[in-house]
Amino acid sequence: FFDRIEAAPADPILGLGEAFKAETRTGKVNLGIGVYKNAAGNTPIVKAVKEAEKRLLASETTKNYLTIDGVAEYNAQTQILLFGADHEIIANGRAKTAQSLGGTGALRIALEFAKRQTGAQTVWISNPTWPNHNAICKAVGLTDKPYRYYNPQTHGLDWDGLIEDLAQAQKGDIVLLHGCCHNPTGIDPTPAQWETLAKMSAEKGWLPLFDFAYQGFAKGLEEDAAGLRLFLQYNRELLIASSYSKNFGMYNERVGAFTLVADNAEAAERAHSQVKGIIRTIYSNPASHGAATIALVLKDEALKAQWIAELDEMRGRIKAMRQKFVALLQANGATQNFDFIIEQNGMFSFSGLSPDQVDRLKDEFAIYAVRSGRINVAGITDDNIDYLCESIVKVL
Ligand code: PLP
Ligand code: TYF
């Protein structure tokens, strides 16, 4: 049966990790996959998480199945992070959340749900985007259409192109938006632009899908939800795929959540029953550990404060590295202006490096980045930044 099967292409980002692992040169630098690293170049366990895990281990009494939609407290806390504790949506029961296997799992549930239950056929996706967005659309049987997002001349948002393209979106189409820290560009709409999009969505009857994988990495937990909350002022129905992989540093625990917002509690309940039907046929019900840990952190005032402080530290370190990176490129003789890197949000920077330059960085200097020119700023440390900047200036 298997003789004629063709090999699948490697994931452009995960494949890079394999290549980096196999790299034998000393001083190699990994700016590929979007994983946070501290000043020492490690991805440690968040202290608030470690403490919660200790408590959980001591207090757990059963390994019985969870319900299909997972840890109830985790889902409730997810809504608080998304909407704010006092939001009308929570009070009126208009949102339902299902724990998912990471943000990826949440996106899959979201698109399966939209395809089966809303009649959607088309998903508008920013160009560029995280490649899995397009792949999941195809897997679900939806058509993906690109909307312009990035202007290589200004290294900023292509606002006119974005509006022109999204003006073609039809009623019932899904429009996928990055909640904050756009992957791969690091460029987010301004509050005024978010509001324009939110109004446009309501007028045209889009079904917005927010991919929220970096809450807390742009400006702060609350600030980063501003775009989503603006949309909710104008749109009664909306989908959200949350991921806690980055902001809790729990990459391998697969912690995410799918949330749907409906016009009223009764509609939300019915829609959620269909979501549970989807989950049942994929993995029946989720794993407990990661979600129970996060619920414990978010429920405990002191642990939550500690987590927020650690998240602030991650964000602060990345911002500091952006500053230093730009200053050192200039100091090493780069003639281009790289100030735009300082303004970008989150882990990623669209550096403007060409595929050829990225290839040269790998071949000549053992520096790994995504061929699009995306670099993971969180991979920059005081130990590698001099070598990195010298090498980049050599390939410019
Ligand atoms: N969405 C975006 C934009 C991402 O960058 C990622 C990264 O991993 C995800 C979703 C998925 O996250 P997870 O690892 O939780 O599946
Ligand atoms: O974009 C990134 O680097 C992260 C991590 O298939 C990632 O979002 C990359 C590729 C992938 C899954 C996660």
What are the defining features of this structure?
single chain, about 400 residues, alpha/beta, Aspartate Aminotransferase, domain 1, Aspartate Aminotransferase, domain 2, 2 domains, seven-stranded mixed beta sheet, two-stranded parallel ribbon, 15 helices, 13 strands, about 15% strand, globular, binds pyridoxal-5'-phosphate, binds (2S)-2-hydroxy-3-(4-hydroxyphenyl)propanoic acid
Question: What does this entry look like structurally?
Answer:
46% of the residues lie in helices and 14% in strands. With 396 residues, it is of the alpha/beta class. The protein has 2 domains: 14-45 and 303-395, Aspartate Aminotransferase, domain 1 (Alpha-Beta Complex); 65-299, Aspartate Aminotransferase, domain 2 (3-Layer(aba) Sandwich). The strands form 4 sheets. A 7-stranded mixed beta sheet has the order 2-10-9-8-7-3-4, with helices on both faces. Strands 1-12 form a two-stranded parallel ribbon. It has a two-stranded antiparallel sheet with strand order 5-6. The relative contact order is 0.17. Belongs to the class-I pyridoxal-phosphate-dependent aminotransferase family. This is Aminotransferase. Its cofactor is pyridoxal 5'-phosphate. Residues 27-392 form the Aminotransferase class I/classII large domain.
List the helices and strands and how they pair.
Blueprint: H1 14-22, E1 29-30, H2 47-59, H3 72-83, H4 88-91, E2 95-101, H5 102-117, E3 122-127, H6 131-140, E4 143-148, E5 150-151, E6 156-157, H7 159-166, E7 174-178, H8 191-204, E8 207-212, H9 226-234, E9 238-243, E10 255-261, H10 265-282, H11 289-299, H12 301-331, H13 340-343, E11 348-350, H14 355-365, E12 367-368, E13 374-376, H15 385-395
Parallel strand pairs: 1-12, 3-4, 3-7, 7-8, 8-9
Antiparallel strand pairs: 2-10, 5-6, 9-10, 11-13
Helix pairs in contact: 2-11, 2-12, 3-11, 5-6, 5-10, 8-9, 11-12, 12-15
The structure holds pyridoxal-5'-phosphate (PLP) and (2S)-2-hydroxy-3-(4-hydroxyphenyl)propanoic acid (TYF).
